[in-house]
Design goal:
Helices cover 32% and strands 15% of the residues. By secondary structure, the protein is an alpha/beta fold. A five-stranded parallel sheet has the order 5-4-6-7-8, with helices on both faces. It has a three-stranded antiparallel sheet with strand order 1-3-2. Helix 8 links the parallel strand 4 and strand 5. The longest helix is centred in the N-terminal third of the chain and has 10 residues. The chain is globular, with a radius of gyration of 19 Å. About 5% of the residues have low confidence.
Length: 261
């Protein structure tokens, strides 16, 4: 099965480097790539992951390049690039590990939650750091897929389902997803406006959008910057877990239990 095709921008975000660095890997021959009719490079996800796991791989440990496997901070996990609000935040300025610990401590020092909204406990980044299940919203009318995924909830992922765009909007209001999986058939019915609506919805801040395509359609490309990756139907819960685990965070060690006298 062909793995998802990534733009150089998406490949860069997956390993926390600049797009120019990915271009450098391609031109050096360290990272296989193909070119579109318009001359743009496309990288297979499996090739990128292979390069990143090689000890002598893509030179992502040079001084001028971020460490590919380093944990993401909140402004990276929740946004493709930090907005002006993040850049004014004390968490971003100090590159603190855990934003939620600074909310009460330095409320007057610049952490006014200008970028993030809602309770910290509902935030996808907070949930990952604390080892809580990652919320995944699946927008599909495939009842067999829904039944299968519903049976496979675990400590790693929690699924919710919507069968229409309206249902998806209502679900997001009470279930803040880290990933939104949209069936290709839904997009064909509602159009690409659904992707734009999800990407701009403040209640879905930081959510990565996956498009579930029909078997044999992995080579297709959806021209929308909101799409993080494509996944082939029928997919399984462990494939979603694998995608979640490709985005590293620094986990919070549980506090030791109190020792009784």
């Amino acid at each position: 099965m062909t793995s998802p095709l990534l733009t150089t921008g998406k490949a860069a975000r997956m390993c926390s480097v600049k797009p120019d660095t990915v271009l450098k890997w391609i031109k050096k021959g360290a990272l296989p790539a193909t070119r579109t009719v318009g001359g743009h490079y496309r990288v297979e996800e499996q090739d990128l992951l292979l390069v990143l796991t090689q000890d002598d791989g893509c030179e992502c440990r040079t001084e001028d390049t971020a460490l590919c496997s380093r944990p993401m901070r909140c402004w990276e996990y929740m946004s493709n690039s930090p907005g002006s609000e993040c850049q004014e935040c004390v968490v971003y300025k100090t590159h603190a590990a855990w934003c939620f610990r600074l909310v009460g401590v330095v409320k007057g020092a610049g952490h006014a939650k200008r970028f993030c909204s809602g309770l910290c406990q509902e935030c996808p980044y907070y949930r990952r750091v604390h080892g809580l299940p990652t919320n995944v919203l699946v927008v599909s009318q495939d009842e067999s897929l829904i039944r299968d995924l519903a049976k496979r909830e675990s400590d790693a992922v929690a699924f919710r389902f919507a069968r229409r765009g309206y249902d998806a909007s209502a679900t997001i209001s009470v279930f803040r997803p880290a990933f939104v999986v949209i069936d290709q058939a839904i997009l064909e019915d509602l159009g690409m406006a659904l992707l734009d609506a999800l990407a701009s919805d403040p209640r879905a801040r930081g959510a990565r959008i996956l498009v579930a395509v029909r078997k044999g359609s992995m080579g297709m490309h959806i021209h929308n910057r909101a799409v993080y990756a494509m996944i082939e139907e029928p997919f399984h819960a462990d494939e979603i877990v694998a995608l979640v685990n490709r985005i590293p965070v620094e986990t919070l060690e549980p506090e030791p239990a109190a020792v009784r006298a």
